[in-house]
Design brief:
about 350 residues; alpha+beta; Transferase(Phosphotransferase), domain 1; two-stranded antiparallel sheet; 9 strands; transferase; nucleotide-binding; cAMP-dependent protein kinase
Length: about 350
Amino acid sequence: MGDLHKHYQTFDHFLRKSKKEFENHIKNDMVIQGNIQDFNILKILGTGSFGKVVLCKHVAEGDKLYAMKIMEKINIIKNKQLLHTISEIRFLEAFKFPFIVGLMYFFKNNVYIFIVMPFIAGGEMFYHLRSMKKFEESLSKFYAAQVIMAFEYMHALGVVYRDLKPENILIDVDGYLKITDLGFCKKIDNTRTFTLCGTPEYLAPEIILSQGYNYSVDWWALGVLIYEMAAGFPPFYSKEHMKLYEKIVSGRFACPPHFTKPLKDLILNILQVDRTKRYGQLKGGSKDIKGHDWFRGTDWDGILSKRVKSPFEPTLDNVGDTKYFETYGDIVLRESINNEYADEFADFSVGKKGFM
């Protein structure tokens, strides 16, 4: 307990310092850096309704690789994602934490918005979880520790994440993780919010019941993630959303027989429908989770500084190996002589407007 107490002291000091830096930083306008001519696009890494993510190199930086998210302005407007997109860019740029993806460059042209981030070569946790069927508890614990500290960081800054799932966690070459997709982040400080957003299997009961919520939803999602990592499937599941939501609101689920007693106990204390009993929301806050028996012996400071060797490291042939990503065709970018939706995207560099 002595090491844990020392960790609390140093980490709490780090969080207080981070909050001051964050609050000062978001008062400033965001500077747009770069343009598409600065980059060579190599291949598509992923695609979806949001747009495409491509592997690219900065022309002036030699062989350094980046992941570039390319979103068409017209799709952002049609899907009513303007505020989410601005929010994602601002949080990517403002967060400074080892287990959260950061922004390297951001720019726009007449047709697209471009978000350039580090290339995380190990791909999504989702890929590895499906490949292994389930994670050993030691690996689940290693990943969970990083998510917990990332949430402590976000919550200390007054931000709720709201989109935890294996698809939004990337695994780096060293086996450590990076949380990505910050579009649902919201700065709430000490208030509540009512927006229905997130992935159905990971929604907390209070979101489904439109009760208004705060950081409680992230701790619930952590419980779902720990369960899914260790079991290979989520605690609540149904092909029909209404039946799924009924299961979540009831809070009834069963743990697989291979779960150890401490793991079962931790999950039961996090997946509490009653928020007054949910770990993460009690008087001890996140310390109730970090101090739980399941995390006994965890070197929190060692993980934070990446001194602890990961139980799993992706096998990569070279720095540009994309074996953990699907294969797609070539990318063709549309061009236009007109600056599309110029008024709607005029405020992308403005600080405070970028936080939902």
